[in-house]
């Protein structure tokens, strides 16, 4: 398949503006609810305003998936203009957003929309989008891009630590039993994105420093030639370990490139402040 191909994602991707612009990637927003008031992520609520509200709110916010009509409205002009759409979305195990995109495809009655489950979130989605953008720019077909994305997804890595598991438990992304890890004295839980696209608490260590070292050690266990690999470090507001993790990654992995960014409203609602993650 050749012709015009348009990349789409959702606001859970935390896609840096550089890559949005470079590969002309459109982002459909999820909704954030603060005290009964609904905002569109990065449309009516900026990332900076979100973190300010979160830090000063007495109640925790929640998120709503993208509804099918929002997807249909975003997709339709490109379909009418002769594009084929590749949407790379938030893990279907974490949100109904991917299902909404599927319903939008049915509403538009077209076979020109292709929906790829990242089985990831945040910068994990973005790494797939960046790879797709590079391949499309180089002239690869959609079938070739899809095959590479499947391989990248199969070999992906996503580990993170948060200051508190409260947000993840409240949002249903972790069980209450898993959340008890966070209440144990001096314990820092290490969480990961599983191959099925869920979140699980995998290990517990005694300090943030040890947690960072453990995450990088798990990356090294993959026996990958990182000199040809792009990795990503993202964090939520208030994380003071970005420089430390970056130094560790540069020293121990020596990757080709490190993409960095601030986690936005959709993922930040569930992660809370003080979190940091390593993806590839």
Write the layout of secondary structure elements.
Layout: E1 5-10, H1 17-22, E2 26-28, E3 31-34, E4 37-40, H2 47-56, E5 62-64, H3 68-80, E6 84-89, H4 97-108, E7 113-117, H5 123-137, H6 142-154, E8 158-161, H7 166-170, H8 176-179, E9 188-193, E10 199-205, H9 208-220, E11 230-235, H10 242-252, E12 257-262, H11 265-271, E13 276-279
Parallel strand pairs: 1-2, 1-6, 6-7, 11-12
Antiparallel strand pairs: 3-4, 3-5, 8-9, 8-13, 9-10, 11-13
Describe the structure.
With 280 residues, the protein is α/β, with parallel strands linked by helices. The protein folds into 2 domains: 5-30 and 65-154, Rossmann fold (3-Layer(aba) Sandwich), CATH 3.40.50; 158-279, 2-Layer Sandwich (Hypothetical Protein Tm841, Chain: A,domain 3). Helix content is 39%, strand content 23%. The chain contains 11 helices and 13 strands. The chain has helices at residues 17-22, 47-56, 68-80, 97-108, 123-137, 142-154, 166-170, 176-179, 208-220, 242-252, 265-271; strands at residues 5-10, 26-28, 31-34, 37-40, 62-64, 84-89, 113-117, 158-161, 188-193, 199-205, 230-235, 257-262, 276-279. Helix 5 packs antiparallel against helix 6 and helix 9 runs parallel beside helix 10. The longest helix is centred in the middle third of the chain and has 15 residues, at 123-137. The mean pLDDT is 91.
